[in-house]
Design goal:
The complex is a heterodimer of chains A (398) and B (177).
Chain A (H helix, E strand, L loop, with lengths): L12 E5 L11 E7 L2 E8 L7 H6 L7 H5 L6 H16 L5 H29 L4 H21 L8 E2 L2 E2 L5 H25 L3 H7 L7 H7 L4 H4 L7 H4 L20 H25 L18 H6 L1 H13 L7 E9 L2 E9 L5 E7 L1 H13 L4 H10 L4 H5 L1
Antiparallel strand pairs in A: 1-2, 2-3, 4-5, 6-7, 7-8
Helix pairs in contact in A: 3-4, 4-5, 4-11, 4-15, 5-6, 6-11, 14-15
Chain B lengths: L2 H11 L4 E7 L2 E6 L4 H10 L7 E9 L8 E8 L6 E8 L5 E3 L8 H12 L2 E3 L32 H15 L5
Parallel strand pairs in B: 2-5, 6-7
Antiparallel strand pairs in B: 1-2, 3-4, 4-5
Classes of the chains: A alpha+beta (398), B alpha/beta (177).
Chain lengths: 398, 177
């Protein structure tokens, strides 16, 4: 019998993962160079969802550009709207009335809950735990129904306005939301009983994708990805906006900076969000939901347009001429959205349109971290790493 | 540290580099020359009482016909320890549309600089992998420049024909029993 003539050879294999792949959470493409099961090189390719939001905004008035912010991170459109409105308000030097601030805080935290439960659902699904997915979509449905009750839209809401919010909340909405805050902490426990002590879950998340605090800061990470490494940086605390300085809440921090700690951070944030919503409901002040300056920026309510002359004129002037010209200057305003720090950098040249609107998207920064997390790890952990940074490609590509 | 103190420190250390200091809505911008950008950033990052260790954002702005130097690269910095913010603005002319990369200082600058190159065509010297990030690799032009049409260029992107041909091929495909 002849011996083996050629010795066994191995070579690196290049795999293209995505853009259509269930675990990439959108249209992200990773080119992985594999040596057996080990990832040698990971190159993310983004841009499949690039719609040119920044370019489009340059041709729109400040009022028209608001719906663009919905389409950034479409899972948490409410907090994007709030971020945009705050930036424009700061530019114009106006402030929303107290009641609007509390309502905005409520809807921001509702968005945080709905975004985080989508995250835990899909992340657990990627790692092989399916039931959490079904459980958490039940609660998400409740929240979306609440959004619908509030403003008529479920996904791209465009509810906050420059200088306030579009309409006041109804008692029915408040009651239903309060019931949600009573019910939801029990549901969080339900999710946790499913995965928290699950050995497969622990094995696949503990010690995976570790990033130290110094490194996380140097990378410019934000949100739970940064706090999972133990860095106490939350814009709601550091630069309080809306009603965040009037409510009491804790910022959960991780220790090891691995996938598991980031998961714990987000689960604790769910509890804190419930806490914030309850305090806001209990302290919700009376009063208007739009600043008195609002007619200069925002369309008056339709029923007023049909009934009184002044509003009709405002409506006409706003539609034909655009809002009042902004003062010349530039502004960077950051808000804490569920994914991290969403910053709007607006350069105004003194007209009614932004000269330049830059969106600092947390997902964009976090995707650039993927090679650092994946290289040297196993190919199975790539999925865990994509899940843990909680990206939405609509926001990454803009 | 108070914002004005920070600018005083920068002026003291780099007297020839600072061009202008602008304050608007309690936010400070320092306009600087682009030549020693890495040195300035390194100093801001390392100086114990400044310690700008967190790079929030880098972006470009196109001031076509508004300012003598066409582009500006804007750095938004933050200090985790001292909790202060600063905006650096480096003017970049159209003829010499390049600036040194700050990736050695903040590794997170990598993709921001790539995007800036993609959208404005500003080259970052010393960048580890300066390629397009959001637009296709063979795209012509830089979309966020003010002279770039909002509706896109007249001609078709060459990759698009390829996609159309492929789609046509798949349409013709049918199962053979």
């Amino acid at each position: 019998m002849a011996g083996v003539e050629k010795p066994l050879q191995t070579k690196e294999l290049t795999v293209s993962m995505g853009p259509q792949h269930p675990s990439t959470h959108g249209v992200l493409r990773l080119v992985l160079e594999l040596d057996g099961e080990t990832v040698v090189k990971c190159t993310p390719h983004v841009g499949y969802l690039h719609r040119g939001v920044e370019k489009l905004a340059e041709g729109m008035t400040y009022l028209q550009a608001l719906p663009l912010s919905d389409r950034l991170d479409y899972i948490s459109s409410m907090s994007n709207n709030v971020g945009y409105c705050l930036a424009v308000e700061r530019l114009f030097g106006i402030e929303a009335p107290d009641r609007a601030k509390f309502i905005r805080t409520i809807v921001c935290e509702m968005t945080r809950i709905s975004s985080h439960i989508i995250w835990v659902a899909t992340h657990a699904l990627d790692l092989g735990a399916m039931t959490v997915f079904l459980y958490s979509f039940r609660e998400r449905e409740w929240l979306l129904d609440l959004f619908e009750m509030l403003c008529g839209a479920r996904l791209t809401v465009s509810y906050p306005r420059i200088g306030g919010v579009r309409n006041d909340v109804s008692q029915e909405f408040i009651d239903s939301l309060y019931k949600f805050t009573e019910e939801f902490p029990k549901r969080i426990e339900e999710y946790e009983t499913l995965i928290d002590k699950n050995r497969i879950w622990l094995g696949r998340t503990k010690g995976i994708g570790v990033i130290s605090a110094e490194e996380a800061i140097n990378w410019g990470l934000s949100g739970p990805v940064l706090r999972g490494s133990g860095v106490d940086y939350d814009i709601r605390k550091r630069f309080p906006y809306d009603a965040y300085d009037k409510v009491d809440f804790d910022v959960p921090l991780g220790k090891n900076g691995d996938v598991y700690d980031r998961y714990r951070c987000r689960m604790e944030e769910l509890r804190q969000s419930v806490r914030i919503i309850r305090q806001c409901i209990e302290r919700l002040p009376r009063g208007p939901v739009m600043t008195p300056d609002a007619p200069k920026f925002t369309l008056p309510p339709k029923e007023r347009v049909l009934a009184d002359m002044e509003s009709l004129i405002h409506h006409f002037v706003l539609i034909t001429k655009g809002p009042m010209a902004a003062p010349e200057g530039e502004i960077y305003v950051a808000t804490e959205v569920p994914k991290g720090e969403l910053g709007f950098y607006i350069v105004s040249d003194g007209t009614g349109k932004p000269y330049r609107m830059r969106v600092r998207a947390p997902s964009f920064v976090h995707v650039s971290l993927l090679p650092r997390l994946c290289e040297g790890g196993l190919v199975a952990d790539v999925v865990a790493n994509i899940g843990t940074i909680d990206i939405v490609l609509g926001e990454c590509d803009r | 540290m108070e914002p004005l103190e920070i600018t005083e420190r920068i002026k003291e250390r780099f007297p020839d580099e600072v061009l202008d200091i602008i304050e608007f809505r309690e936010q400070l911008s320092v306009a600087i020359k682009k030549e020693r950008i890495v040195e300035i950033c390194r100093w801001l990052h390392d100086e114990p009482d400044l310690r700008f260790d967190y790079l929030k954002d880098i972006c470009g702005v196109d001031y076509l016909g508004k300012k003598p130097a066409r582009f500006e690269v804007v750095y938004t910095l933050y200090s985790m320890r001292h909790q202060h913010m600063l905006r650096l603005k480096a003017a970049v002319g159209e003829d010499e549309a390049y600036i040194d990369s700050v990736v050695p200082v903040w590794i997170g600058a990598n993709w921001h600089e790539r995007e800036c190159y993609d959208m404005y065509g500003i080259r970052f010297n010393g960048h580890p992998d300066l390629s397009r990030v959001l637009m296709p690799e063979d795209w012509e032009g830089h979309p966020l420049r003010k002279d770039y049409p909002e509706g896109g260029p007249e001609r078709q992107w060459p990759g698009f024909q390829e996609v159309l041909d492929k789609a046509k091929k798949f349409k013709e495909f049918s199962w053979q029993g």
